[in-house]
Amino acid sequence: MKFIEEISRRRTFGIISHPDAGKTTLTEKLLLFGGAIQEAGAVKSNKIKKGATSDFMEIERQRGISVATSVLGFDYKNNKINILDTPGHKDFAEDTYRTLTAVDSVIVVIDVAKGVEEQTEKLVEVCRMRNIPMLVFINKLDREGKDAFELLDEIEQKLNLKVTPLSYPIGMGYDFKGIYNIYEQNVNLFTGDPKKDIEDTIEVKDLNTDQIDQLIGSDSANQLREELELAQGVYPEFNQDDYVKGKLQPVFFGSALHNFGVRELLDCFVDIAPPPRPKSSEEREIKPTEDKFTGFVFKIHANMDPKHRDRLAFVKIVSGKFERNKPYLHVRLGKNLKFSSPNAFFAEKKAIVDEMFPGDIVGLHDTGNFKIGDTLTEGEQIHYKGIPSFSPEHFRYINNADPMKSKQLNKGIEQLMDEGVAQLFTLEMNNRKIIGTVGALQYEVIQYRLEHEYGAKCSYENINVHKACWVEVDDEKSEEFQEFKRVKSKYLAHDKQGQLVFLADSAFSLQMTEQKYPSIKFHITSEF
Ligand code: G4P
């Protein structure tokens, strides 16, 4: 197959949702369609089980599973699909944000009864900021839920999206009769048989004939006609260009559990979702079709075996062909590296391969060379941008609890931060280290891993920080900035990249500081 064909048949995407909306179930059904797995229940959920949210051993166990489901690759109708796993648990939101830098589009799953939930709002906002094309799947139509119009409205209001339905439910819950597929112009009748792999679709080109009445009864048929007419009046016509630009979000309805409406979603998805997209670097924009390989690290996974400090770096291929045993430039370190056993990801397994293409994720064994955000090239000095850090929610001082092991502790902290487990801030005043995390759970994970993987012991100490704000100033010599640095010296720190961060101790003090120093900008993300 030609290089260009390989690129254009790739679809690399993430599924995002609030926990329990049905992401795992949907993923599994997509894999079934791809023939990548044989039966439902084969994909282990890497989500943290309910009731186990404070059990970090459970997280360690899940960490093993999540390696297997980090990237799920399979073929479907001559497309190569790569699903990148995005943890739904909010304590791992940072991981998900980073993964979203490696997708070319996303599918958003929403529970028909719960509607738009908190975690969906946050994740969609990140996608919106990056103009990532989004397709919405409203799930669990076999249950009672909100009315279709109410949901579409809610999605527009709460998620700030512009939607257009490409399928439409006929009843729901007890009365769920099926789905009219606006995109394909056919009807799919619901039998409620979860074992049936693919439902039969019945082509209905013209809703004004009585064909539809015979299928679902006159009352339902009339209601469907009315609602579709209304929908056509309210929502814009589907336009692929707007969708790809992130300006319009098509919506599908279905039931992942019953494998209903999933085939429609997938068929439309491979049809309209974009192949790998160009990516900006600090120097220039790089197109996937360029013949020289480039890629960037968006995720690092430590090996489960503490005896080997071996890690797997996940690299998204942006351009060119990745080849086994070919030397590539690690731009940050300025050194050439060769990879003798690069991994490609298939459903539930990885395998060593000789070449991979833009859109693919390659897993590289690493002994500590990689950090999240690193760029690999064939020699060109480019730096991919946009692996953002967001202000953590929790902050604690980290102290060395075993003075004999300070080297191990520092090494451990450094590597865990490179992996993106948490963020490190170093206070300007006294060089004390502060660990910031999205969830409180990470503190236990860090403590456990420092001890078991690095032989170091740490303790924590509370510190009152509300938010970490990255500081932006035009003129570092200005009197205002100098005064700010003097007055707030106690609250100033540097992140791992050396960027200046203001650790505000309350929302009020942040507001006061912003007012007092109008020429200084305070950002809650490192990307501005
Ligand atoms: P998540 O990955 O987004 O967290 O959600 P997951 O797929 O694990 O689904 C959460 C729960 O919702 C599961 O039930 C799952 O069976 C159910 N579910 C998913 N899709 C549908 C659907 O279309 N209809 C209905 N009625 N339920 C659906 P659970 O009881 O929490 O887990 P399990 O014991 O069934 O695995």
TrEMBL record:
Example GO molecular function: translation release factor activity, codon specific
PROSITE patterns found in the cross-reference section: G_TR_1 (PS00301), G_TR_2 (PS51722)
Keyword DNA repair assigned: no
Main location: cytoplasm
UniProt-listed SUPFAM superfamilies: EF-G C-terminal domain-like, P-loop containing nucleoside triphosphate hydrolases, Translation proteins
Residues noted as binding GTP in the record, renumbered to the chain: 17-24, 85-89, 139-142
UniProt entry keywords in alphabetical sequence: Cytoplasm, GTP-binding, Nucleotide-binding, Protein biosynthesis
Gene Ontology cellular-component annotations: cytosol
Domain named Tr-type G: residues: 8-277
Similarity-based family: Belongs to the TRAFAC class translation factor GTPase superfamily. Classic translation factor GTPase family. PrfC subfamily.
Function summary: Increases the formation of ribosomal termination complexes and stimulates activities of RF-1 and RF-2. It binds guanine nucleotides and has strong preference for UGA stop codons. It may interact directly with the ribosome. The stimulation of RF-1 and RF-2 is significantly reduced by GTP and GDP, but not by GMP.
Protein name: Peptide chain release factor 3
